[in-house]
Amino acid sequence: MPPESSSKQFWRKLRLKFSSYSVILLLSLIVFLLLLYVNHYFRLRVVQVSGDNGEQNLIGLESLKGSNLLWLNPESVRKIINQHNPDYTIRDVSKIYPDKIVIKIIREQPVGALKLNIGYAELSSAGKVIKKTKTGSDAEESARLNLPVINFYQQLDYYQVNLGNYLDYEGLLMTLYLLMKCRELELKINYIDINSLNMIVFNLKDREESRLLFSAEKDRDLQAYELETLIRQFKIEGQDFKVIDLRYNKPIVKF
């Protein structure tokens, strides 16, 4: 049998290469179309908000639409919402395939105004910075917001305290926790001095020179329990007090 001519060999190799390239190109096209379909099918179209005040008050939701639900990270959703809406906390982010997420929110309410070097930061009970203001004296700020002003021994810089961030200082968190307990007991606090971890002074409103003394070095639940027990007892007996000091093993009361 005569050997195959060089021209035939060339065309034969060319056809093989063309067939291989055609298969690769076809597979690439199929993969591309499949990815295009998947991206379109799982594109986020619906953002449902449940909880306080609803979707109309949340900023940043539009930036989420069009994202691929397969790759959307719930934690990134939390960061976006928290960055633009410091007065809300995200309780849960649920993905509902193929094109929907449900965001459960709760609106944070300020419980105290932390005095900064040139202003105030309104804080939630968990220490989240909800709002910042620059105007007013301590008395004016307390009256305007109907919130107790908190004087912290480590005064923070206005420009380094960012909206949406959490302040996790031990003495400050203890103060906010006990402040919520005072609200529960209907004790109105005018202003608070955090002089040290062992000297947290709550000055009562409408009770001249009446104070509550706490310590961040003592169990907070125990102090809350002791305070509740004493206040309820005084209400039953019709007694008033000048100082309740809960920093030590046994409470000290001055009338």
Q: Could you list the spans in which at least 5 consecutive residues all have pLDDT below 50?
A: none
- In the sheet with the most strands, the strands line up as 6-5-4-7-8-9-10-11-12
**Broad shape:** elongated
- CATH architecture of the largest domain, please? 3-Layer(aba) Sandwich
- Report the structural category: alpha/beta
Total beta strand runs: 12
Main β-sheet: number of strands, strand sense, barrel status? 9 strands, mixed
Quaternary organisation of the protein chains = single chain
Share of residues in strands: 25-35%
Average residue pLDDT: 86
Number of helices: 5
Total of domains: 2
Distance between the termini: 123 Å
**CATH T-level topology of the largest domain:** Rossmann fold
Rg over C-alpha atoms, rounded to the nearest angstrom: 31 Å
CATH class of the largest domain: Alpha Beta
Task: Describe the protein in words.
The chain is of the alpha/beta class. The chain folds into two domains: 46-107; 112-254, Rossmann fold, CATH 3.40.50. The protein has five helices and twelve strands. It has helices at 6-41, 74-84, 138-145, 170-184, 220-237, and strands at 46-51, 88-96, 100-107, 112-115, 120-123, 129-133, 149-152, 189-196, 199-204, 211-214, 243-245, 252-254. α4 (170-184) runs parallel beside α5. The mean pLDDT is 86. It comes from Candidatus Roizmanbacteria bacterium RIFCSPHIGHO2_01_FULL_39_12c. This is POTRA domain-containing protein. The chain crosses the membrane at residues 20-38. Keywords: Membrane, Transmembrane, Transmembrane helix.
